Every structure is written in C-alpha cells, then in structure tokens.
Amino acid sequence: MSNRDYANRKPVSKGRTKAKGGRRKSAQPAPKRFPLLLSLVTVSLVGGFGYFLWSINDSATDTTPEPVVVQPAKPQVQKKDPNALPPKPKEEWTYQQELENKQVEVDIPENTAPTRPYQMQCGSFRKQSQADQMKAMIAFQGLEAQVRKVEGSSGIWYKVVLGPYDRKRAAEKHRHILQRGGLNGCQIWFWEGS
C-alpha cells in the first residue's frame, strides 16, 4: 500500500486538465480586461489637464486694461535744518513738592525669640583619619567642614560638622549637595556651641 498525503494535497484548478502520463496541462489564460477604475481616473486626469490649459489660455488672451489710479501731487514741505533741535520742553514735576512734606512710617517687627543657629553632622568616628577622609570628601563637593574632638561617656569621638547656619533651609541646601555627591546620612541639629 502506498502512503499518500491527502491532507496536504493541492486541489486541481478548473483551468487545468490532465494530459497523458499524469502531467497537467494548463489551458490558455483568460484575456485580461482593462480595469474600469483605472480608465475613469485616466479620463478625469486628462480632462482636468485640458481644463487647466484652457483656463491659462483664456486668461492670457484677456486684454481688459486695468484701471490706472492717478495719485494727486503732494505739496512739498520745506525742509528744516536737520541739525536744529526742537525747543526744550518745560518740566512739570509735581511729586517733588508732594514728597517734601511726606512722612514715612515703618513697622519693625519685634523679634522676641532669639534664633538658634543650626549645624549639620555628617559623621562620628573613633579614628581621626576616618573623620579627615570624610572632611576631604565634603571638600570635593565645594563645602567646608570641621572635625571636632568630643570626649563622651563612651570615649573619644571625632565628629564631622558643617555650620553654623542661621536658617535651616541653608543647611538643607548643603545636605542636598552632599546627597548628590553620594554622601548620605547627614543630620541637621541645633548648634551645640564651640
């Protein structure tokens, strides 16, 4: 028994017939018709081009004269000396007399609470060399820091501090500069003195 693949077999087209020996012979192809849409587009383009040529020819042969507008002669103005200046205007200022008798009142707010300055601490180390390294990293960001030696209950600490700042906003600005440089963890506190 031969294995035939009926599922993938191509159907026989109607225009072909089997010839002797199992070969298919194609019938003559049907004559192609000129597409109707293509002919309509061609006719409309040719007609449009003809109308364009006719309108150009019509406007070129139109010999209607255009009306001529006659400008009335302008009276000649006598020229003055170009170097002559106009007369100096008279100054009329009224605010000078008003300000002579004016008194200005200024309200100065009383600042009852003394402001405490702020400081920013970026590190606290046991070794001074580590604190100096942090101070150098801060200097590379364009800011100036100090290293303070503090003796506490747990021993000697070296703190890296920036400030004093009059306003907390200035301290926050410097903290953002340090954060962009990769130094995170700086804390803003009230100034402790020294």
Which helices and strands appear, and what pairs or packs with what?
Blueprint: E1 16-18, E2 24-26, H1 36-61, H2 95-100, E3 118-125, H3 128-140, E4 146-152, E5 155-165, H4 168-180, E6 187-190
Antiparallel strand pairs: 1-2, 3-5, 3-6, 4-5
* CATH class category label of one domain: Alpha Beta
User: What is the approximate shape?
Assistant: flat
How many helical elements? Answer: 4
Strand content: 15-25%
Query: In sequence order, what are the helices and strands, one letter per element?
Result: EEHHEHEEHE
Whole-Å distance between the termini?
108 Å
Helix content: 25-40%
Which value, in Å, is the CA radius of gyration?
50 Å
Keywords: Cell cycle, Cell division, Membrane, Transmembrane, Transmembrane helix
GO biological process, one term: cell division
Protein name: Cell division protein FtsN
Pfam families: SPOR
